[in-house]
Write a structure and sequence with these properties.
The complex is a heterodimer of chains A (about 120) and B (about 110).
Chain A: E1 4-7, E2 10-13, E3 19-25, E4 31-37, E5 43-51, E6 54-57, E7 64-66, E8 76-78, E9 87-94, E10 96-97, E11 100-101, E12 105-106, E13 110-114
Parallel strand pairs in A: 2-13
Antiparallel strand pairs in A: 1-3, 3-8, 4-5, 4-9, 5-6, 7-8, 9-12, 9-13, 10-11
Chain B: E1 4-7, E2 10-14, E3 19-25, E4 32-38, E5 45-51, E6 56-59, E7 62-67, E8 72-77, E9 86-94, E10 97-103, E11 107-112
Parallel strand pairs in B: 2-11
Antiparallel strand pairs in B: 1-3, 3-8, 4-5, 4-9, 6-7, 7-8, 9-10, 9-11
The chains are: A mainly beta (about 120), B mainly beta (about 110).
Chain lengths: ~120, ~110
């Protein structure tokens, strides 16, 4: 298993440009997440999904959109990039057995700079 | 919503010493508390977790303790090694379901040879 993969690894955007960060997992996990990590600030949840066709906002969703058409893929869309979106973005996935949730597996991250 | 405080933000120890990182949480309904290690340029990786029905859990040199009454939990690393140097994050499940986690701001641990 490759686990959680993210592309691209690095990207520089100009203010106002758009882009999609790709995330794929091959573990058949129902739950997927997007986080942003700013220096000294931990991980903040942007959006998450509990299954194909279902998404919900996290703590910091403004300026982002997501979709979940398949179990494997969970792309994150930035429509009008702003300098405040400069960050490292992590995708993660998880699963549940009954009422027990298990660990979140993280991808390697995408470092995004908006100038 | 849930709030997780983590201390210290940086920690430097000598190889062989123990390291302790502490976290407090605000939501008494939280029931899952994982600890993640993040090496430079990589994604976080789970090193140990504990659920609210357990007070302590050990895995070789790593242990986690949970005090539900005081709403705090701690990571203990014994016999530290240089390869333990990394950023460590605690997290707690948020109100509404364990599928969501709230993370602390991280502790940068440096183990000096």
């Amino acid at each position: 298993n490759a686990g959680v993969t993210q592309t691209p690894k690095f990207r520089i955007l100009k203010i106002g440009q758009s882009m999609t960060l790709q995330c794929t997992q091959d573990m058949n996990h129902n739950y997927m997440y997007w986080y942003r990590q700013d220096p000294g600030m931990g991980l903040k949840l942007i959006y998450y999904s509990v299954g194909a066709g279902i998404t919900d906002k996290g703590e910091v969703p403004n300026g982002y959109n997501v979709s979940r058409s398949t179990t494997e893929d969970f792309p994150l869309r930035l429509e009008l990039a702003a300098p405040s979106q400069t960050s490292v973005y992590f995708c993660a996935s998880s699963y549940r057995t009954g009422h027990i949730f298990y660990e979140q597996y993280f991808g390697p991250g995408t470092r995004l700079t908006v100038t | 919503g849930e709030n997780v405080e983590q201390h210290p933000s940086t920690l430097s120890v000598q190889e062989g010493d123990s390291a302790v990182i502490k976290c407090t949480y605000s939501d008494s309904a939280s029931n899952y508390f994982p600890w993640y290690k993040q090496e430079l340029g990589k994604g976080p990786q789970l090193i140990i977790d504990i659920r609210s029905n357990v007070g302590e859990k050990k895995d070789q040199r790593i242990a986690v303790t949970l005090n539900k009454t005081a709403k705090h939990f701690s990571l203990h690393i014994t016999e530290t090694q240089p390869e333990d140097s990394a950023v460590y994050f605690c997290a707690a499940s948020s109100r509404g379901g364990s599928e969501k986690l709230v993370f602390g701001k991280g502790t940068k641990l440096t183990v000096n040879p």
